[in-house]
Amino acid sequence: MSTRHSRLICVFILIAFVQAACYLPNVIPSQNPQPADGTAAMQTAIAGVAATLTQAAQHTPQPTQPPPLPEATLTPTGTATLTPTPTLTPTPEGAFISVSVETKCRLGPGKAYGQVGGLPVGQTVEVFGRDSGSQFYYIRNPNNPNSFCWVWGYYATPVGNFAAVPVFTPAPTPTPAASFTVSYLQTVSCAGMYAFRFQLNNNGSVTWNSYKVDVTDSTTAITKTFTSDYFTDYTGCGPSVNQLQDLEPGEPGVAGNWATGLFNYNPAGHSMTATFTLCSQNGMAGTCLTKTLNFTP
């Protein structure tokens, strides 16, 4: 039995004794009452019990409040990011090109090769090969379906699977064969000055970028010279829109003794000699070829 329980039993016994004493017969005290031995003992016991109860109350542990529950901590979760499903575009079988500017088709990838055809604007052709730098494409010759040729890809729009297009090793660059023809067309005049128009045709494999013409009037022994990096045609007193920066293989052009090459008199009926020198680079440099033409205006 615990000490606390023992003390409570004693208290109950004491209370029972007090209640019982209330029912005892009244005793008339004497003039000098003296407390009976039992009464003194009873008071002493009550005082001891009260002291014990006070001490027990002081030492009785008070109930403690339970610790507060920890507040729930909400950990935010990441917001789900939806990745859009890519739209699959079907890739056509093979590789194809079309050009925005009419493009020459050559025997090899470059100007050094002769022209054998041309790819017109708006026509789509299949690509069967490419050079190592993917600058030229090997296609069926638009002018001859039984042969193939190369087109420059600068003006080309590619469509399809070009990763599967094989790289072709072109044929060795041919040794350039320089050649051209020249013929007299007509005499033009402006404000008393006279010049001659000549037809040029590049029938070789060298691209001409500049020319010089010396026109000699055998009747008057006068020579006029004109040099240019452009093949420009004049009609009357002004140039026409037909101006070429160069004269490529197979390409025709017009040239003349313009500006410094003009005669200040009418040379009609005179014996004239025109000496043309064409060069592969601007400024009369590179590979050059000279031809002479005799004519009578």
Number of strands: 16
* Beta-strand content bin: 35-45%
**In whole angstroms, how far apart are the ends?**
153 Å
What sequence of helices (H) and strands (E) makes up the elements?
Answer: HHEEEEEEEEEEEEEEEE
CATH class of the domain at 181-295: Mainly Beta
User: Helix/strand/pairing class, anyone?
Assistant: alpha+beta
Q: Tell me, what's the shape?
A: elongated
Classify the helix fraction into a percent range: 10-25%
CATH architecture of the domain at 181-295: Sandwich
Mean pLDDT: 79
Number of helices: 2
Q: What is the topology, as strand order, of the major beta sheet?
A: 3-2-6-5-4-1-7
Q: What's the CATH topology label of the domain at 181-295?
A: Immunoglobulin-like
Q: Which stretches of 5+ consecutive residues score pLDDT under 50?
A: 20-38, 66-91
Largest sheet: 7 strands, antiparallel
Rg (C-alpha, Å): 61 Å
Structure characteristics:
single chain; 297 residues; alpha+beta; SH3 type barrels; Immunoglobulin-like; seven-stranded antiparallel sheet; four-stranded antiparallel sheet; 2 helices; 14% helix
